[in-house]
Design goal:
VPS35 endosomal protein sorting factor-like; protein transport
């Protein structure tokens, strides 16, 4: 501590000595707040302030909760501006003391703006505490922070994101070739996320974090932890039913589609049935009360896309060092049969939903989209050929689709059928 900071510390000690004994400080809250505010505003080395012997005792003089909270806010907002990375234990403890004061002031009566402001302050402090390459110490800090800040949702969200980032950094350092120690560490990170997410009240945040944490676990070859996160994410979708305002269908549809794109490369759990996660997702979607039938139809069309790719001998993308189902099953006939079973169920559901829409532009648009998927992405049996033609007739029946679009669709299928695909040629010939 240099001479300037020693002088400030001495002055603070003198103030405490004069007003602490007979509790006369209660008369001087405004003056004390002014002193703290001026020091925070003018000091250049903020960490030096936090390690002063007399700084935290000065804060202790504010016995009235509202005054103490106001002072702690000013200090931490000041630290947000001037402090970028902290790892000194004394400074960390001082910051945690100030943060705890703010956190403990939050209750059911706290106004939303105040709740958000305190959450933002705590999140910033969590982000600036950085132990560098000492990842185990960093995770220990996040565990302690979770225990201290249980009242504020956004803080738990920040902690889960920080732990996922820590897990990704670990993987980058070892370039995916985990040792026993780093493997144990990333599994501990995945476990932290899985344990923490259920405590978050917002179903929207829980959904997004389960998907993110599952992806990070998969990225680190933690297959069991990834599977658990994805299962929890699927189960959480059903909880949205009572909280649709938090996660409207306009947001749910792209979320589910992103989930499906990840499920493509998630290997089956050997302890569960074939495509267990995909079946679970479809069961949840089927049981969900959709406000707009078009939302479910749009998702089902994406499911058809995913299942079509699943049946391929080699998937278009993979997670490094993770064997997907294309490697595990190798186009095994039983696996393909399971995919076909699920496809049949989904197409049946799709046809039912399309009929329920009734004649309209949306019905025609969805029908032509499904028609192309059936015609191009499948081995056309007699049954599928009939289905494809029925879909085409449904698409053109009410004449609502742009004729140029229909002509381009037909030209596209003509081009696809030129490679000795007699079944597709037959469809093209029968298209009106």
């Amino acid at each position: 501590m240099d001479s300037k900071h020693r002088e400030i510390n001495t002055i603070l000690g003198d103030i405490i000595e004069h007003i602490a004994p007979d509790r006369s400080y209660e008369q001087y809250y405004n003056q004390l707040k002014y002193i703290v505010e001026n020091i925070v505003h003018n000091i250049q080395d903020f960490e030096a302030l936090l390690v002063m012997d007399n700084f935290l005792p000065l804060i202790d003089l504010f016995q009235e909760e509202s005054a103490r909270v106001e002072v702690c806010k000013k200090i931490l907002i000041g630290s947000n501006i001037s402090v970028h990375v902290v790892n000194d234990p004394v400074v960390v403890n001082a910051l945690m003391f100030l943060c705890s004061t703010l956190h403990d002031s939050v209750n059911a009566l706290t106004p939303d703006d105040e709740y958000r402001q305190i959450g933002d302050i705590l999140c910033h402090v969590i982000k600036v505490i950085d132990y560098g390459r000492d990842f185990e110490q960093q995770l220990t800090f996040y565990v302690e922070a979770r225990g201290m800040f249980s009242n504020i949702d956004i803080v738990f969200v920040q902690l889960v994101q920080c732990v996922n980032a820590l897990s990704v950094k670990t993987r980058q350092i070892v370039k995916g070739a985990h040792t026993r120690k780093t493997g144990d560490f990333v599994r501990a990170c995945a476990a932290y996320c899985f344990i923490t997410i259920p405590s978050i009240k917002s179903v929207k945040h829980r959904l997004r974090l389960y998907l993110l944490s599952g992806q990070v676990a998969l990225f680190n070859q933690c297959l069991g932890q990834a599977d658990a996160c994805f299962k929890a994410g699927v189960s959480t979708i059903s909880e949205i039913q009572s909280e649709k305002a938090q996660f409207p269908e306009a947001e749910l549809v792209p979320y589910v589609k992103q989930f499906l794109s990840i499920l493509l490369v998630v290997p089956d759990n050997p302890d569960c049935s074939v495509l267990n996660l995909t079946r679970s997702m479809l069961n949840v979607l089927q049981g969900y009360s959709w406000d707009n039938t078009a939302s479910l139809i749009s998702i089902y069309l994406s499911v058809i896309d995913m299942l079509s790719v699943m049946a391929q001998e080699w998937y278009p993308y993979h997670i490094d060092k993770v064997e997907s189902n294309d490697s595990l099953y190798g186009s095994d006939k039983k696996f393909i049969a399971e995919i076909n079973k699920i496809c049949s169920v989904v197409i049946s559901e799709l046809m039912s939903k399309l009929q329920a829409l009734g004649p309209c532009t949306k019905q025609s648009s969805f029908a032509v989209e499904l028609f192309v998927k059936v015609a191009v992405r499948n081995e056309l049996t007699n049954q599928l050929l009939v289905l494809a033609l029925n879909l085409w007739n449904l698409a053109v029946k009410d004449g609502s689709l742009d004729k140029r679009y229909l002509i381009r669709t037909k030209d596209y299928l003509k081009h696809k059928s030129s490679s000795n695909n007699t079944r597709l040629q037959e469809i093209v010939e029968k298209m009106e």
